[in-house]
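Example 4.3 (complexes with small molecules)
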Amino acid sequence: MVEELEPPAGAAADWTISQAWGRYSAAEHAMWDTLFARQSAMLPDRVVPEFMAGLDILRINRPGIPNFEELSDRLMRATGWQVVAVPGLVPDRVFFEHLANRRFVAGRFIRTPDQIDYLQEPDIFHDVFGHVPLLANPVFADYMQAYGQGGLRAADLGAIERLARLYWYTVEFGLIRRPEGLRLYGAGIVSSYGESVFALDDPSPHRLGFDLRRLMRTRYRIDDYQQSYFVIDSFEDLLRQTVETDFAPLYAQLAGQPDFATDAIADTDIIYTQGTQAYARARAPE
Ligand code: HBI
Ligand code: FE
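Answer. The structure with 7,8-dihydrobiopterin bound is encoded below.
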């Protein structure tokens, strides 16, 4: 959660800044190309086909860091979304307000070679390669706007943490069931080489059926691979549950119920794989 209330110097009241695309160095464009080549080579039979289609429709598969003006032109024609640059994480309400108005906020900085496999804050590769291609899919584009609208309501009800969990286990780290098997769609996974392998192939994590109420009670880890991934049946189903659920009474119900730990299995869970949690044990002790 980001709580500062004032935008930093140089940012507009809605925290947007210019991408200043002309200022990227050759090394920064090369960093993007390295990351793009690695992910686009390993994703095709792991990620939902709609993701690869989005890379194509939005011409993100051209060399170099995408120019947000050109990207937004194509995205606007596809689903009415645009991409705007921000200095970094923005306060929750600002974030939700942008999503509710079909504006995806993206960092404009790119990681350095020593950060190729992990960085704390989302950079332009995480935000644009990870999040933007699916915004060209009409159903997912509707879901992201509904999420933003839900977030503004949650902010009024003091329930942002519930929405943050929904975002985390779908938009960031979601899996989806397809006839040919489980597939990736979460941006945090598809922008990471290691986690794109781990989330589908590793015996360590649980893979559990998406259940909105249970998921809103489930904690998440921000500094490591997930110990549980949640599997949706379709983007249509995810959108329907988000639009149809009256969240106010749901938050009241959840208030009295304990959280689930990141590695818990609930007796109501649909279990695709019960993980060994070996990776978690292998990690350095907390
Ligand atoms: N700001 N730039 C940016 N990107 C995010 O993904 C983001 C954010 N602010 C808040 C936030 N995400 C989450 O805490 C929300 O899901 C609540
Ligand atoms: Fe993200």
